[in-house]
């Protein structure tokens, strides 16, 4: 009986480790979700290896334990590659940004989300799958008189960018080949300092090669926008995904030391960050926090503060 239980643990652990380890061989789109969960899966494999050792002492369980720990540590190292140095508390934030995928059929919570946005104190708000806020737009515009999306620049209401300050040359373009109007580009002047804003909504990574094509489009757009830059939105994958890592590395994008988990909702802080707020020098992230309430969405929203390097 012990041999059978040990064999089951070993087979399952080997299968999980093999899937995660394929990231070092191929960026196959169907495995991208597993790559995003690398640390979680590696920790689970380590626990399974320890359980196997309790059932039966064997060198193979020690081997899978060692491989699990290596994959977990490397996952943490890869995430920390893009962490910016902490901004001094004394340095003032020049603006606050909210980014939130509210889910396009979440109409029951539209008024509550609008109340939260108005009370948030954010200078710029990026709402994805924004249809539930369309009826709330008139009162949102009393606080955020400048916007793009939801009828401005696009007929659909997937993306809505609200601002307290004028949006300079706002425009909308497609990302990849699957969905239309999933990228908004605008510039905002904060007391003489212009900041470029990109709000993006990417496809789920297991939809064929579309996610990679969208990443390639972002890599083409970002260099055309000199100066401070923010890229925020729903990437549907963590920064452990190879294509997102490539984008961040090639474009010099940075993040905070610990990105808040935003999905799945049921996992709370033990989920993964698939919604991101990224910055490019001389813009620096001072903080990023998760909005405590999901307001009926299948994502948690994010609130970030930014500072500028001298």
Automatic annotation (TrEMBL):
Q: Quote the Pfam families the UniProt record gives.
A: Exo_endo_phos
UniProt keywords, alphabetically? Endonuclease, Hydrolase, Membrane, Nuclease, Transmembrane, Transmembrane helix
Endonuclease/exonuclease/phosphatase domain mapped to chain residues: 98-292
Membrane-spanning parts: 28-53, 60-79
**What InterPro entries does UniProt report for this protein, alphabetically?**
Endo/exonu/phosph_ase_sf, Endo/exonuclease/phosphatase
Taxonomically, which superkingdom? Answer: Bacteria
Q: Which GO terms describe its molecular function?
A: endonuclease activity
- Supply the name of the protein: Endonuclease
From which source organism is this entry? Rhizobium sophoriradicis
